[in-house]
Task: inverse folding
């Protein structure tokens, strides 16, 4: 892997755990910055504090107008495996991102696959 081509993405501990065990296959973010540049076959290094990094490859990206539409289309269990409904998943994203930011940038679903 060329370290210049790896995107470093900090995540919260619950996301880190679900990504590392393979239960979370879709990362949702605002469609801006590095997330707007990501494409299939890019590599992401997920980090959380002092835990070892998790490396994954991007298998698919798709922009959406809202987190609700993203979660509905991508599936609650793929995006937020510890939650059981679209409403709960939307509330989680709303606790992180404001409606105005969501409307300004849109969101992106980044499907990932763990690297060995």
Result:
């Amino acid at each position: 892997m060329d370290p210049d081509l790896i995107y470093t993405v900090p995540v919260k501990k619950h996301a880190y755990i679900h990504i590392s065990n393979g239960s979370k296959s879709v990362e949702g973010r605002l469609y801006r910055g590095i997330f707007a540049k990501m494409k299939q076959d890019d590599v992401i290094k997920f980090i959380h504090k002092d835990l070892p990094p998790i490396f994954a490859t991007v298998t698919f990206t798709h922009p959406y107008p809202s987190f609700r539409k993203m979660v509905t289309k991508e599936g609650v269990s793929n995006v937020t495996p510890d939650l059981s409904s679209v409403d709960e998943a939307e509330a989680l994203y709303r606790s992180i991102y404001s409606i105005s930011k969501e409307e300004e940038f849109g969101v992106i679903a980044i499907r990932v696959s763990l690297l060995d």
About this structure: The mean pLDDT is 95. The domain at 3-114 is CATH 2.30.130.30 (Archaeosine Trna-guanine Transglycosylase; Chain: A, domain 4). The helical segments are 13-20, 33-37, 67-74, 76-79, 86-96, 99-105.
